[in-house]
Every structure is written in C-alpha cells, then in structure tokens.
Specification:
By secondary structure, this protein is of the alpha/beta class. The chain contains 10 helices and 10 strands.
C-alpha cells in the first residue's frame, strides 16, 4: 500500500523527550503489526538512552490520535492474523513493553481515540487531550468485543462506565473522559501543545530513578491485596533511599539548591 512506503511511525527527539508519531493520517493512524512493532522499538530505544526522560505518543494530523486496528488490512500483519507459533499477539507485546518502561509515557491526544487506539491511550501513564476528541470502543457494532485492550482499560476506567462503553459502543466526549480519569487534562485544540509542554516540564526534571521505581511499584501494587502492597512498600523503601538520586535529592534539599540527577 502506498501509505506504507514511508515509515509509519515518526521518531523524533525534542530535547529530553522522545516523540513517537503514528504517521498514517489517511488511515486515521490505524494500527497494524508494523506500527505496533515500531512503537515498541521506539520505546525500547528511548529507555536505553540515559539522556531521555519521557516519551510522547501521538498521531499525525488533527482528526485522530488512533482509530484502532486497521480493518482494511487482511492477511499477515492484520489485527486478527493468528500465528500459533507466536502465541503472544503483537499488541499485547507492546502493552507489556509500555508497562515495563521506566520512562513516563504521555499520550498527546490530538483527535479521536477509538478501539485499539483507546487501548493505546489507556496504556500510557498520562494523557493530555484536545477537548473536541471522542473516545470509545465501537467493536460491538461490528460483532466484536474489545478483548485485546480490555486489560488496559480495566486499569483506568470505572467498571460500570467501561461496561456501558463496551456494550453500547457509544463514544464519550472529552469532558466525560476527564471525569472518568481517562485523561489528565483537556484543553482547546489551540492550547494542546502548550499544556503538553507544561506537563513535560514538570516531568523531565524529576529524578529518573524515582520515576522508574515509582512506575514499577504502581503496576506491582495494582495486582496485590492491601496487605501485600504494604509489605511491598516497606521492603522497597531501603532500595529507594539507597539510590544516587535519593542521596542527591536529599543533599540538594538541605543545601537549598537544585538537584543534579546522574
């Protein structure tokens, strides 16, 4: 296909932030195996770079963040292609990569986030959205259920709200998405990048070690009972305070200066 002749994910470093842009605007930035693989590779490369402090995922244009799986593609690489020699679906592999990533991943929601695109949004750590964006799981309209993205959605949305979305396939607007905790902020489209920059400024100068340990603890505790989480927390405190960043942060606080993270 003509739109696949060029890279379908644009990788761009902007200061300490790695930007990954799904560049399939004619297909409303739909996902296929190539897109998902390149997103995963971009995340792994960013995490391997000590100078990188955050990752932004967004879509090209102003209509769609990501409209979900590319239903026009069939055969190898399509969202429903089954290879029994590779039991892990490529989208699940991406979500696991995102969860294991020690860098904060921020979604820049420049347009509609639907189906797999909504799952991609839910897999990010934070999100800033244009206030004219729509969010939804339209799968039941075509005889499907959002099976692959359900685990990520369950970690973000309230159960009854999610159940309604999955059953009715009706989209929600940005105001409702904000109320449900799907996104951190919604702003007029003209202010999207300014708000994103505001959030990134408050992310990239924080302790990298603290953010890595914090993300690890956040995901680990989600699967624990309260008692297990408390035990995990107290066991992690000695590891946390032993890091170079913790020593530097405490010294900087006492000396009334800005910390210099290693």
């Amino acid at each position: 296909m003509a739109d696949e002749e060029q890279p379908v994910v644009k990788v761009e470093r902007r200061d300490a932030v790695q930007w990954l842009t799904i560049d399939r605007e004619p297909r409303r930035n739909a996902l296929n195996e190539v897109v998902v693989r390149l997103l995963g590779e971009g995340i792994v490369a960013a995490q391997a770079d000590p100078a990188c402090r955050a990752i932004v995922i967004t879509g090209a244009g102003d209509k769609a963040f990501c409209a979900g799986a590319d239903l026009q593609q069939s055969g190898a690489g399509s969202p429903f292609d089954v290879d029994y020699s590779r039991p892990r679906h490529y989208l699940v592999a991406l979500f696991r990569t995102m969860q294991a990533c020690g860098l904060p991943i921020v979604a820049r929601v420049n347009g509609h986030a639907l189906a797999g695109g909504f799952g991609l949004l839910c897999a990010c750590d934070m999100a800033v959205a244009s206030d004219d964006a729509l969010f939804g799981t339209p799968e039941s309209k075509i005889g499907l259920t959002p099976m692959m993205i359900l685990p990520t959605m369950l970690r973000v949305l309230q159960p009854r709200a999610l159940m309604e979305m999955c059953i009715t396939a009706e989209p929600i607007d940005a105001t409702r998405a904000l109320a449900l905790g799907v996104v951190n902020y919604t702003v007029p489209r003209a202010e999207l990048d300014d708000k994103l920059a505001w959030l990134l400024e408050r992310t990239v100068d924080r302790s990298p070690a603290a953010l890595r340990l914090g993300k690890q603890a956040f995901h680990a505790m989600q699967d624990m009972t309260l008692e297990q989480a408390q035990e995990y927390a107290q066991a992690m405190v000695p590891a946390m305070v032993s890091t170079g960043d913790a020593r530097e942060g405490l010294a900087a606080f006492q000396q009334k200066r800005a910390p210099v993270w290693r």
